[in-house]
Design brief:
CATH topology of the largest domain: Aminopeptidase
Helix content: 25-40%
Shape: elongated
Oligomer: single chain
Largest sheet: 8 strands, mixed
Strand order of the largest sheet: 1-2-4-3-5-16-6-15
CATH superfamily of the largest domain: Zn peptidases
Radius of gyration: 24 Å
Order of helices and strands: HHEEEHEHEEEEEHHEEEHEEHEHEH
Number of helices: 10
């Protein structure tokens, strides 16, 4: 990227900023849950029609379209934004507060969509200075399985034309507005959901000898499973095994007939991930049977880890240095959080960035997935710049 093109990107990103911000506030005010993004999809379709951009609907409410630039057959680069919100009641008192009870864009997907919409307008202006075809992807259901990314891939989003590279971003209050986070190689963890049901003949709590204490069995299972990380995991392989829900369906004087346990597994190696699944099953069955109970275990296939292509990251950072000061390009540690952009990253060379959104205002530094998450609005123009720089 030369200096002249970098200046054009800065100027155009500034020019589309107010419109992109309007999009963000509208989308924030009308959030929709995973696989329910009908009005969100319609709003984006209306925008694309206004911009005279051809698109198609894919994976229920997903949208994919192309902008043909110079030599459109030479390459295809994709830009992706996710669309869904979370089941959280918003507590922010802002003019664009969520109008949908119990639903909120607490993970910043409204920002991701607004950044991509702004980038589309900039790319249209620069199409005679950009090589190839630019494919844009608005994806449903990042937050919930089945994954929207996986579904879109199955329905051909990376084909016709075949995608050579794909880029995406995610807001983060860990970084100040104007800063971009990156990491080459493995970036975000795989994620599996764990569902365990312990079963046994319950009974009166005053007569435990006539029952199988499913609460006690479940307790032993949870404690024993922790040794997988503490005693079986390579200390150099980041691994998290956590249980966040246990429900006994009993009472002070009732030993329940079943106990349900829910948890999550995060790591960065597929062989080790498979080994953990086997250990969870083996340990749970062994303890349950040894204590007179039975068990059911479900570990549905979850997200793989996010893999950033090292060559593309290095190439992108070189381009970003024309748009951002070096001190605003932050190399980040691996993250145990998961992201379904991972599915794309195991199909084609990929780059996934973190977009700084906080400032000195303490209300704009709150964590993701909370009822008071919000952003410094100006982070949107930096997000536009980031996406556009990826394809020049």
């Amino acid at each position: 990227m030369n200096k002249e093109l970098a200046n054009k990107i800065k100027i155009l990103s500034e020019q589309v900023y107010e419109e992109a911000l309007t999009h963000r506030k509208h989308l924030h005010a009308y959030p929709e849950l995973s696989w329910q993004e009908s009005q969100t999809s319609k709003y984006i379709q209306d925008f694309l029609q206004k911009e005279n951009i051809e698109y198609s609907i894919i994976a229920s409410y997903g949208i994919v379209g192309n902008i043909k630039c110079k030599n459109p057959e030479s390459r295809c680069i994709a830009l992706r934004a996710d669309m869904d919100a979370l089941p959280i009641q918003e507590e922010n008192e802002v003019s664009y507060k969520s109008c949908n009870d119990g639903v909120m864009h607490a993970c910043g997907h409204d920002v991701h969509m607004a950044c991509l919409m702004g980038a589309i307008k900039v790319i249209k202006e620069l199409k005679n200075e950009i090589e190839g075809t630019i494919k844009f992807i608005f994806q449903p259901s990042e937050e919930k399985q089945p994954s929207g990314a996986q579904k879109m891939i199955e329905e051909g989003v990376l084909e016709n034309p075949k995608v050579d590279e794909i880029y995406g971003l995610h807001v983060t209050p860990e970084l100040e507005c104007g800063k971009i986070g990156y990491r080459a190689g493995k970036f975000m963890a795989s994620a599996d959901e764990i569902y365990i049901t312990i079963k046994g003949p319950g009974g009166h709590a005053s007569q435990p000898h006539k029952s199988v204490d499913t609460i006690l069995v479940a307790s032993h299972v949870i404690v024993a499973l922790q040794q997988i990380v503490s005693r079986n995991a390579d200390p150099l392989m980041p691994t998290v095994l956590s249980f966040g829900d246990i429900h006994g369906y009993g009472a002070t004087n009732i030993i329940p007939t079943e106990v349900k346990i829910k948890g999550t597994l995060r790591t960065f190696d597929e062989t080790w991930r498979s080994d953990i699944h086997e250990k969870i099953i083996s340990i749970t069955k062994g303890i349950s049977e040894g204590m007179g109970a039975t068990c059911e275990i479900e570990i549905p296939e979850g997200l793989p880890y996010v893999l950033n292509d090292e060559f593309l990251i290095n190439q992108s950072i070189n381009k970003l240095q024309h748009l951002f000061d070096n001190e605003n390009l932050i190399e980040m540690p691996i993250r145990m959080g998961a992201e379904d952009f991972a599915y794309y990253s195991h199909q084609v060379p990929s780059c996934f960035y973190r977009l700084g959104t906080s400032n000195n205002n303490t209300q704009l530094g709150k964590k993701l997935h909370t009822s008071i998450f919000n952003i410094d609005d100006s982070s949107i123009k930096f997000g536009v710049m980031l996406l556009v720089s990826s394809i020049v």
